Amino acid sequence: MKIRTQLAVAFLLLAVVPLTGIVLYSYFSSLQAIRQETEAQARTMEARMTSLKGELGRGFERIGDVPASELMTAARSHQEGRPDPLFDRMVLGFGEAAPLLRSLEFVPVPPSPLPSAPPAPPAPGYHAETPHLVEKVIIDVPGILRQARRAAELAPETDPHALAAIDAAVEALAEGEEAPPVPAEPPEAGLPAPAPPAPAIPSPPVDVEKIRKEVAKQMAESRKARADANAAERERQRIARERARVEKLMIGRRLEMPVWEQGKVVGTVKAQIRGDELLRRVLTRTPRNQGEIPFAVDAEGKLHTVDEVDRRKLEGLQSDFVLQVRTGTGARAFGYWAVATSKDSESGLVLGIARPAPLQVVRKAAARNFAYGLGMIGLALLGILPLSTRMTRNLKMVTEGADRIAQGDLDARVPVRSRNEFGRLALAFNRMAEDLKTHQELLLEEERLRREREMEQALLQTEYDRKTRELEEARRFQLSLLPKSLPDHPGFEIAVSMRTATEVGGDYYDFHLGEEGALTVAVGDATGHGAAAGTMVTVVKSLFSADAGSSRPREFLDQAAQAVKRMELGRMAMGLCLARLAGSALTLSSAGMPPVFIRRQASGEAEEIALQGMPLGGLASEYQERSLEVEPGDTILLMTDGLPELQNGDGDPLGYPRVRSLFESLGAKPPEEIIAGLGAAADSWSGGQPPKDDITFVVLRGRSTRPSA
Fold first, then answer.
1. Statement: the pTM of the whole predicted model exceeds 0.70
2. Quick one: which H or E segment has residue 498?
3. Buried b / exposed e along 117-141 (16+ C-beta atoms within 10 A)
4. What are φ and ψ of residue 129, in 5° steps?
5. How far is residue 691's CA from residue 468's CA, in Å, rounded to a whole number?
6. Tens digit of each residue's pLDDT (9 = 90 or more) over 109-150
7. Containing H/E element for 351?
């Protein structure tokens, strides 16, 4: 394709693509702005709901600050018919949320009778020994709000909307509420006992049939009265359950608080909330400047709106509008409407705002702008064609000059006819021939520098060989710390294997044979590799040689951990597992090491003994110790984490379950064959690749005949 054609195509791409991007960006940014504004309105609704719920919660928390003695005194005064200002403060303490209260009750806990109390029955409403109430007290919320209404009328500059809200709350609360129960009055002291009934005076014969009919009539009326009372009670309970259900759907919980006195619960304060009024406040106070429709969907899938007209509009947007709203949050499009929702995690109530978005107008404007842009691009293309012809002519002269230089004519020059980019290109082309000799000299200089770098690499190789010899010496020193030979114990056969991942490994094993025949086996793993790990092994080797036979395994780990901590070796640490064999008794203690496996000869299964404890040099830890019996033929495996963490070509570790299964299958063989089998399994799993961590394991097997301890 010629350069002229390429320039035309490039111009079209560089003009049409940005134009398309700008039009699409303006279109989607407009939609995004509409959705963000809708989301902001939804968040405002959620904030309003949260504020009202928070006001209710804070008012209820203020009740918890009231001393129990004052609350009990106020309750007794209420039952005796004497008003108490405490209940007024409790209701008005809810502030703007007070009209949302349906009822506020104090339910005392009936006190248990004291063993030393006299058998005389207590007066109604009181206990014989304590002043606690035994009947609930319903606080007159409407009456308190009416008093607040009268006080607000007398106050200057009172908000008329606040007065109207209190009036509506009083009417709604007072409608259908039950009067608080009145306790029975106890008999007054000092009054004379009622006179006994006068003796019966014989009366003339009566009509027995008439009396029987009268009794049957009274019994029927009594049964009807009981049935009416039961029906009224069931209706009251149904209304209470329905209110509790609505309250839970709106706020997600019940407001209840126990009242404590001298470490005991003496009662409960309960508040019932008008959930429908709470939701109505949130919906009606949402601005509707651009035709927005506030709505809510409760946890049962019921759609709530300000009126029926709004509800029908929302249901007409999509058949499953409620389901779509409940299954997601944020801003979404329903036709030409933008809908944003926010879900209350406590109650599951979804608050949302539906806003009619002018999507069709935005689309038409974007299409019109795109058409105007294409017309301007077409006009610009007609003007660029002559310019591209002149540009290609200058490029042709540069191409011909390049061909001459390629043929070896270093005197080739291109005429400079302008001062624009093509003129500067011609000047650069003319300088190119003059720079060839300079470039050749630079090549010679670069060759000299390359030879100097080769000499530096030879020196680095010499230094590397020296450090390798030093590491090899450190490796021989670390291996010298390991036992030269295995102890010859009359009760156990022993075999050991160690593979280091670097020149100086971090694994360690050792033995100590006491004077009484007790054998102590140590297997450790220092953090990292190299000289640092060798230093930690040297420290633990010294501690083990000095104190391994005189202390119990757990005591030795405690002393060793303190000694390593005092050395302040930085982040260096070392895991260590100790196993002491005395006769048939095996004592284990571990400091951050893998579990110990014991294969029982009788069952052929391996037990896993895992003991908790931090590595030596780490955080302070209390080490565990466990003792168990070892029978003849039982086999013990102590190891570092190199074997179970060995990875194959896919990066999967061998794992403790596979090691345990291998040990169970090999446990009946002599220790040397077990060692060989575990090593072969490791080579097979890793595919012959060198391990990334040290691999060490010690195998001990009880002899068939064991001398007595």
1. no
2. strand 492-499
3. eeeeebeebbbeeeebbebbbbbbb
4. -115, -20
5. 19
6. 765 554 444 444 443 443 433 444 556 777 767 767 776 766
7. strand 350-356
